[in-house]
Write a structure and sequence with these properties.
Layout: E1 4-9, H1 17-30, E2 39-44, E3 62-66, H2 83-88, E4 93-96, H3 99-105, H4 109-121, E5 125-130, H5 134-138, H6 142-153, H7 159-162, E6 166-169, H8 186-204, H9 206-210, E7 213-217, H10 225-230, E8 236-239, H11 246-257
Parallel strand pairs: 1-2, 1-8, 2-3, 3-4, 4-5, 5-6, 6-7, 7-8
Helix pairs in contact: 6-8
Bound molecules: 2-phosphoglycolic acid.
The site of 2-phosphoglycolic acid has 14 residues, from strand 8.
Length: 258
């Protein structure tokens, strides 16, 4: 069965070991009786806290991911973390191409493509973020931007590997840190999903395309998740702000499992 995927992107919001431990305590308490056959929840803390989640991920429905990585396995790369290191810490997923990486670290599609390749070689699953900024949306360039990013980033990803890849439509302007007035409308989200699906069908064929998960990110919380993620046919969510509130986040996850 193809499961929904809910990804908690903690960013740098839980900013110390104590804050991480408090979050874990509360989430563990709240999720004691939680089980789900149709939804996998992925926790993506800053990499140095991956080890703190080892107990939580003993449950089948929970797994671990990173917020970024480098494209080499090892070597003289001060400050970087490799897919191989992440795998050795039991990570299963890596978020790549997040707009905050593009904005503050000037990451380009070509670098993201290299990271995706390496992550797949390391038997991890990349969660690739794509989406337009506000200016591009105003100029009606959403479809063009999404297609360009898909083409660039998936250029070298073949049929065997695309199934391990998760595509996240995350309009940059809709991320809560960018203070959007509203998230996109259901129609806008559905249009983006259909565009991504069509791209996948054209490149990989229908059967393979059906196996690729497409999720949505940008201001998702426990109140709007049904309308903007589930009713739009998305198969999961990338969640920033709401993920650092353990009770609200669990409510959000449960909406997928209902
Ligand atoms: P948000 O962040 O849920 O706070 O909008 C999502 C993200 O940036 O991945």
């Amino acid at each position: 069965m193809k499961k929904n995927l809910v990804v908690a992107n903690f960013k740098m919001k839980l900013a110390s070991k104590t804050e991480i431990e408090t979050w874990l305590r509360n989430f563990e308490k709240a999720s004691k009786k939680f089980s789900s056959l149709n939804t996998e929840t992925v926790f993506c803390p800053p990499s140095l806290f991956l080890g703190n989640f080892s107990e939580l991920i003993q449950k089948d429905e929970f797994s671990l991911g990173a917020q970024n990585c480098f494209w080499e396995d090892s070597g003289a790369y001060t400050g970087e973390v490799s897919p191989k290191m992440l795998a050795s810490m039991d990570a299963k997923y890596v978020i790549l191409g997040h707009s905050e990486r593009r904005k503050y670290f000037n990451e380009q599609d070509s670098e993201i493509a290299k990271k995706v390749e390496k992550v797949l070689k390391s038997r991890l699953n990349p969660i690739i973020c794509i989406g337009e900024n506000l200016e591009e949306k105003r100029q009606d360039l959403t479809m063009e931007v999404v297609l360009r990013q898909l083409k660039n980033i998936l250029e070298k990803v073949g049929r065997g590997n695309i199934e391990k890849t998760i595509l996240c439509y995350e309009p940059i302007w809709a991320i809560s840190a960018n203070n959007p007035e509203n998230p996109p409308t259901s129609n806008e989200i559905m249009e983006a999903r259909l565009l991504i699906k069509k791209f996948l069908v054209d490149k990989y064929g229908r059967t393979t395309a059906e196996r690729v998960k497409i999720i949505y990110g940008g201001s998702v919380d426990q109140n709007n998740v049904k309308e903007i993620c589930i009713d739009t046919g998305m198969e999961g969510a990338l969640v920033g702000s709401c993920s650092v509130k353990p009770y609200d986040f669990l409510k959000l996850v449960k909406t997928f499992t209902d």
